[in-house]
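Researcher: Go.
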Amino acid sequence: MLGWDQCQARTWDATCRHTALAALAQLRHIAIRGALHGEITLPPPPAARVPALPRMTATTVTLTTLTW
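Model: Structure:
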């Protein structure tokens, strides 16, 4: 179940990383399966908050408006 037959980890760090990734993959699979079968409901995505930009007006740019 943990994918040890496919793992070629030889160090302790590699073994820990492989175990963590395999566990996360299983949790993701369980969450997706549960959502598809209606066993759990996922929270709605957050509403996109786009800041309002100031309204642009049609004005003519002159040299005096560009100088400080």
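Model: The chain has two helices and no strands.
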